User: What shape does this take?
Amino acid sequence: MSGGMMDGRTGELPEVPLLRVEGLARHYVSTGLFGRETHRVRAVDGVSFTVRPGETLGLVGESGSGKSTTGRLVLRLEEPTAGRIWFEGREITGLRKGALAPVRKKLQVVFQDPYASLNPRMRVGESVGEPLLVHRAAAGAEERRAKVAELFRLVGLDPRFIDRFPHQFSGGQRQRIGIARAIALRPRLIVADEPITALDVSIQAQIVNLFMDLQDEMGMAYLFIAHDLGMVRHLCHRVAVMLRGRIVEMGTTEQVFHDPRHDYTRALLSAVPIPDPDRETARQRMAYEATVPAPDAALREVSEGHFVLA
Amino acid sequence: MEAPLLEVRGLTVGFDLWDGRVRAVNDVSYSLGAGETLGIVGESGSGKSVHVLAMLGLIPKPPGRILGGQAIFEGRDLLTLPERELRALRGGRIGMIFQDPMTSLNPVLTVGFQICETLEAHKGLSRAAAMRRAVELLDLVGIAEPQRRVEQYPHEFSGGMRQRAMIAIGIACEPKLLIADEATTALDVTVQAQVLDLMKRLRREMGMAMIWITHDMGVVAGLADTIQVMYGGRIMERGPARAVFHDTRSAYTWGLLRSLPEESGDGRRVIPKPGKRRRLYQIPGVPPDMMRPPPGDPFAPRNVFATERCHREVPPLTQAEGGAPGHLVAAWYDLRAARARAQEAAAAGCELRVVGGAEARAG
Assistant: This one.
C-alpha cells in the first residue's frame, strides 16, 4: 500500500480512529391508526466506517442515498435508530446535552448554504466568535475579537469586514465565514455537507483549496459529503459510495476511482460529463439497474482497504 | 445564405433599482441556425439567463427594462412583439425548460392536464386528442407506464421524472427552438446523463435548435455545436465547441477550464497521493458588482493577463486571430502570447499578479 496515510500505520500499533461508526441506521417510520407501522424508510441502514486523524473521507452518492443523514447522525443532530458512534475512542451515541458539549467543541460542521446558516442580524464577527464565547475559549471580548480577526485572515477574509452583516458578502465569502466559525475552536473533525455545491464555478476551486490549506496547517479531519465526484477525487484520501442508505463501496480514492468494483460505482463514474468535446462525445455510459441488496449483503474486502458490498 | 433562426443584435437589458440601474446584459449579439445547439456558459450575474428571459418577455417590467437591441426569431423581433403574439410563440414555436420542475409545475393539476393545456392552447387539439398526445410524449421522454402517470400529480413523480415531464411540456408542440436554463443542474448525475441522452435523441428526431444554458462545462462539451461564454453581462468568447475548449482565447474561459480538478493526458484524472495533493488553479477575486461594473473588460480585475487598456475600454467581440472560422473573442490581450510569456516568467521564478484596476479580493 502506498501513500502517506497508510505508511503511518505499517508496523505500528493500530492507530485509534478519530471517528468510528458501526452499524449506523436511521429509519423513518410512518404509523397508521392505532400506531401500527405502515411504512418504513431506511434512510441510513447499517453504515460502518472510520475516519483517521487528519484524513479526508469523501461520502458520495445521489439524492436519497443517505449521505447527508449520515453526516447529521455523526454530528448527533439526529438520533440513530441503531448503531454506535465513537469519537476519539469514546462512545458518544448515548451522550446527553451536557456530556456532549466537550465533543461538540472538537466536532464542527460546514453546511451547503452559508446564507441560511448565518444569523442575518448578527455581525459576521459575532457569528464567528460565538463558539469562542459559548465554550469560553477566549478571555474577554478583546481577546475574542483578536482571535476572530486571526480566523478571518486564516480563511482569506479581510479582518476589516468583521463588523459587516452576512448580506454584504458574496456566496464564496459567506462560505469562508462559515468555515472560520467551524475552525474557531480548532476542531479535530469537520463534517462538510455539500460545502461547494451552491458556489459559482470560479469560486469552488478557491474553497476547495482553502479546505486543503487548513487541513495542512491545523491537521483536522474532514467528512466531506458531496455529489461532485471531480472535487471529491481531488480533495479526499478515501471515498465511500452510498446507495439507498448503504455503503456499496469504500476504499482509497485511487481504488474507488481507478478500480471501481461495484456496478453502481461504475455507473456513477461513467455518468460524469467530461469537460472536453472529443472525450465527452466518446464517453460510454454504463447503466445500473438499482436492485435492493440482499439482506445478508455485507462489505467484503477485495484488496487491502478496498471494500465492496456483496 | 439562409437566414438564421434567431438573430440577437445589441441586446441590452437593465434593472432599475432604488439605488441605481444594473446593466445585466450588455450589447449581446449572436445568431443561431436552424437545428443548431448553442451552449451558453456563465456564472451568476453573467447575464446568461436574464438575456433569454428578456427575449421571451419574461422579466418583470419594471424594474426590468430592455435598453436596446433586437431579437429576430423567424423574421419577427421578439422585443417589440405584442404580448399576445409572444404568448403564442412561448410554448409553441419556442419551447422552454427551466431548472426547478417543482416550482414550474402546478402542484394541484395532473401532469397530463398540464401537457394538454399547452397542446390545446397552441395546437387547438381537443381534450381527448391532447390526452392521447400527452401519453405519447411521456413515453417519448422515457417515463414508464405513461397511461397511469398522465393521471398523476407532480408530487407523485421523482425529481428526474418531473424534469422529464417538463421536457415533455417543452417539446409538446414540436418547437423550432428549445431553450433550457440549467435544466439538469438539480438532477443527480446518473439522471442527468439519461436526460442529456434523451435531448440528443429528441433534437435529432425533431430537428429543433437548442439554447442550453448552464454553468457546467462538461454538460455543454457533449451537447453543443457552438459554445458561448458569458461574464458580467457580456459575451467573452464564442465559437465551435472544440475551438473554445482546445484553442481557448479568453482568459476567463481558460481560468474556468483550469480551475476544474486536473486530468492527465490520457484522460484519466490525476489522483494526487495523500499528503501530496496539488492545489487547484483558482481564478482570483470575485465576480463583478453589476451595480458598479468595471469600466473596461468586466473580467479585467481578475485577469492576470489584463493590459492597461483592458481596465479602460470594453473590447469588441472579434474573430480570434488564426482561430477557427466563427471563433470570436472579446479581449485586448492575446491569450496565447500572454501564456507563453507567463511560462517563461514562471521558469525564471516569477509569479503573475493582477495589477491595476479595481482591487481584486479573494472570494
User: Anything to note?
Assistant: Chain A touches chain B through 58 residues (CB under 8 Å). The CA atoms of residues 205 and 231 of chain A lie 9 Å apart.
